[in-house]
Specification:
3% helix; Lipocalin; elongated; mainly beta; 188 residues; 11 strands; eleven-stranded antiparallel beta sheet
């Protein structure tokens, strides 16, 4: 088995929250969810090709926000055919049993004019965990770009089971990074 498979830890990416308001829409072609794991100390980056969001967010009333995100775990890629073939298998994402990873916000807090904290539940491979995601918003015309990164522990979500649970091979911490372009968000 290719050690690049270990990069699967990146699936934590599925928990990426978006920021927008009523009638907001994700612009998939201008959005990405990536993950970075470390294999034997070397960073390995992957991404999810398919994800969606339902977002209701008013920058003036962040506490009333509702952000839901769904990631197709079968769309995970590390850019290497052999490794990508391993990701859907039971030891990693177990796509047959858990085809989707989800995030549902429970609270949104404004930190300053452009930065927010989105708390919620991330569910990957049937395991739910609380996460807090820092989000920075930037507006350009009718589009708002939400960016951020947050760590997850892959073993919490049973990603890389059995022989792949050795953290000297694949680190437990996976950094989830996102850039989400939205339309319909009110002025910051």
């Amino acid at each position: 088995m290719n050690t690049r498979v270990l990069s699967l830890s990146l699936l934590a990416v599925a928990s990426l929250p978006l920021v927008a308001q009523a009638q907001q829409a994700l612009v998939p072609a201008q959005s990405e969810i990536a993950f970075v794991s470390r294999q034997m100390g070397v960073p390995v980056e992957g991404r999810f090709r398919t994800f969606s969001a339902q977002v209701a967010f008013d920058p003036a009333k962040p506490a009333a926000a509702n952000i839901a995100f769904t990631v197709d775990t079968g769309s995970a890629t590390l850019g290497v055919r052999e490794t990508d073939a391993e990701l859907p298998k039971p030891l990693w994402f177990n796509v047959a049993q858990f085809p989707k990873a989800t995030f549902q916000s429970s609270a949104v807090k404004r930190l300053d004019a452009t930065r927010f904290e989105v708390a919620g539940k991330l569910n990957i491979k049937g395991v739910s965990s609380d996460v807090v995601v820092p989000v920075t918003l930037a507006q350009n015309g009718a589009q708002t770009v939400a960016t951020g990164a947050f760590p997850i522990k892959r073993l919490t979500f049973r990603i890389g089971e059995k022989e792949w649970s050795d953290t000297s091979m694949v680190a437990d911490e996976v950094q989830v990074k996102f850039k989400l372009t939205l339309t319909g968000v009110g002025k910051l």
